[in-house]
């Protein structure tokens, strides 16, 4: 009876569980249709749970666990099925998470709900580590939904939370991106917990390594504001994905207050966001600037906002931010504020045009000066644009545009000073206030370009003020020894490029008639040049005169516009610039060399004296002057062409670029006795080779001759079609040097130069097939020059240095392969049917060059040569060879067979060669077809001629060497006999040695390299060798001097 009752009880329990399962499944099925049914279904499901665990009974736990087990069973198909993320499944997941948090979100709480939550989390944890992808995904998804919905006061066992956190931290590195996303969402709830600092460390670690943009976005949104995370969030503003960049700006707006950011970070955020190419990102940045920074932190005051940006250091960023705010209509000057309020009468009242008393000036802060300059420029542009629209429109539309232009002009007139004299007094007051108001003075100078100087009296007042500005000398100070030191860059007027531009713009506005600008500056230059001609001027007077000359030459259109003025162009060159370039003071030489370069750009053809002086300054002067001379020569070469610059010398100049067969020896510019009778490109290339020219001073702004000349050569190669007189050998030669500089250690210090080269390489190979031919031709010389122990003999560096040099060489080889595989830019006028490019511009041509380089190394190699050939073979695998080039495939197979024959003892190389040969065999359409010897030679000769390669197939005929070590000969070979045979042999170490008549074909063997080494050692140890044989022994010993320990070990085996 007991057994029957137990069976009946079990059957009843199973029937009840099945009935409960159907009810739960029906509820879950109903939630798939719409979110609107969730509230009602939550109540039904909660009612089912409460019926199984009546309050006050002693057996609450078993019924609740029974409900949990049935509920989990009903939910199992959601985990097991490999289904897509459908809307129905997402509704079920949300409903399940809401049910798990149902009791926790209520005011009173429920112990049954808390216990069910614990059971549910314990059920989900194994699923998060399951092997099935969908099971892990659903478990992590539900866990993240539960964690994000739970209130802070929920009671969950600490051990359970620790298990959940540990599982999610593991899932952050899951191979499925969507699982990583939900794992990060789950951890975002605990990232602020001081007890879980490892979560934040993990997120910061995986963020820069994450490949999926959605996961990166989730991580960024999960990061809390702190000193450790701010930089990581700002770095994401440069992410390649638009949504990640937008998320970064959203986090900065909502979590990071303006005051917690440094000035550098504030300007970086605005500079990147306002200039972002994606409209959504720029709008998010504008929202950050408008709602958070301007409205909340600055109470809508644009002046206060500018104070957070340090306008004197980051003027362009602050100017861009103001322009965006103006374009959005977020700031506009009020009626009671204008520049006129800083100009008042002696009695303190505001001035107007009828006031004659001396004004009293209130000095502006830098932010205020920049603010009014941007406001006035915006109004000036708006008035001009609306006026132009009114002139082209008709009827009512024209009247509307005219009214808008009139309103903008009225507002501009109300803001600007009442008269030109007031404006002059305002600017003078700021200039005389000292260097602390230099920035505000420059902003006010730019305001003058919006004033009207057409009246004669106004023009006279403004002209007098402009002349005062032009006569204003460099500011100076005394050092500890009492020597005068120029404040500023020592080149531009006032020691500042921006100040010189502001003075030039104001001068052009005041003297806008044709020729007036040049006439005014030349009059001042002629006046300042008098003491220079009389040799009574000090170096400051020379620099002042030359800075004005530089300002004139920069803004001049041609030398014709300078004729019939106070000083003729020829007089400027011979009386001012050339003597200045020979001055004893280096600062005078530097600015004079810059003026010579500008003067040469205005000439129709460069003059001989100018070019000669620039060449001498480039070759013989200290770094600051040689840097300026290199800039001038590069600009002249790009403007007039290198051939035209060389022609200006009036004599035949030498060039090593014109002959490909000579060994190039760069000009030694450090040798004062070196003959400089070389063309301009040879001299500039010497700047790339000179090692002692990397020195630079603070005045050069970390520039160097190498960087300037390298950038010039990059431009020359990019625009090579504009210079047809350049020798073809120049391009691969210079490419080799530029790529080696790009991968060298010293380029790390020259960030601008490296950035320039990266842009150049990105576009060079894609512009023309001819460029690809130059890249292919540069491969072998480049890798040979970069690989230690090849061209430079035995490398004396440490193994660490040699390893790094080899890594850079391998990077360079892969970089060139990538350039060769870069697709060409398609021109809109190009034909759809592409023409087959010549062989020397394809990857097949590069493959032949690489294989020929590999074959050039004989069987006896040094350790450096072995590593070099192996690296070449690995590079060969990266090339995409076409099966259509059957003759090339056969030739490469033939050459690689020779490499395999000579490398039978090098296992690594032989393995790589066999892989390439198997690939080539798959590309060969007729592997059984063999050409006759004459046909093969003619075909190879034709290919070599198309590549410009000298290679003789007969001279380097392959030697038949077995792939496995040959058995030792059974014939006795005493040491005396061995020595005599070596004495009688020729100088060729690889000549075949025949044995007595063989009994089987496999007894034919060649003299192995191991036997050669043994024979050489025997010759060295023999004490009774004849004197006439000593030279041969020494010669063979020298030939084996490069054998490393690795080779010695092989010979000892």
From TrEMBL:
Record keywords: Cell cycle, Cell division, Chromosome, DNA condensation, Mitosis
Nuclear condensin complex subunit 3 C-terminal domain sequence ranges: 544-881
Family, similarity comment: Belongs to the CND3 (condensin subunit 3) family.
GO terms, biological process: cell division; mitotic chromosome condensation
Chain intervals for the UniProt region annotation (Disordered): 958-1053
Pfam families according to UniProt: Cnd3
Chief site of localization: nucleus
Location in the cell: Chromosome
Compositional bias segments (type: Acidic residues): 985-994, 1032-1053
UniProt keyword Transcription, yes or no: no
The keyword Plastid is assigned to this record: no
UniProt-recorded name of the protein: Nuclear condensin complex subunit 3 C-terminal domain-containing protein
One cellular-component annotation, GO: condensin complex
Amino acid composition bias (Low complexity), ranges on this chain: 958-973
